[in-house]
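TASK: fixed-backbone design
INPUT:
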């Protein structure tokens, strides 16, 4: 098994750093609100801001992951495939954080309301179904067939 080009390791480190940067910025904004340095850092509805930020980054990373195969086909650069799994797992991580923020911040730990909310609101139903599909994909990515 070849190690690949010498630039691959720094490129993967850069992708890790870029994928974690939005989470670090969000954490910094939450800390500013928490210690009352800037109580408007998350806007008028901090819970919605946290959920939307995590959800948007999950969607952006998912779209980027899905764009890798067509980009590889157009460019002929097979090395792009080495980044697909990493980006897909980051998309799943952000989607899971989005769901966790909804459960912890919106429902405030009333776990019995989860299925009632899923049945009552179509956008939550679609989001939960999408998350379940991502769970399956992340499972395949974490434990590929040998």
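OUTPUT:
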């Amino acid at each position: 098994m070849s190690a690949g080009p010498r630039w691959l390791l720094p490129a993967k480190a850069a992708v890790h750093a870029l994928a974690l940067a939005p989470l670090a910025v969000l954490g910094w904004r939450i800390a500013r609100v928490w210690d009352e340095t800037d109580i408007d850092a998350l806007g008028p509805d901090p819970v919605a801001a946290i959920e939307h930020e995590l959800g948007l980054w999950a969607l952006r990373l998912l779209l980027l992951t899905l764009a890798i195969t067509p980009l590889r086909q157009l460019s002929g650069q097979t090395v792009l495939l080495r980044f697909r799994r990493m980006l897909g797992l980051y998309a799943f991580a952000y989607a899971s954080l989005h769901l966790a923020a909804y459960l912890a911040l919106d429902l405030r730990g009333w776990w019995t309301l989860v299925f009632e909310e899923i049945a009552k609101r179509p956008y939550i139903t679609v989001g939960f179904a999408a998350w379940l599909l991502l769970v399956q994909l992340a499972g395949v990515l974490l434990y590929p067939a040998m």
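COMMENT: Residues 137 and 143 are 10 Å apart (CA to CA).
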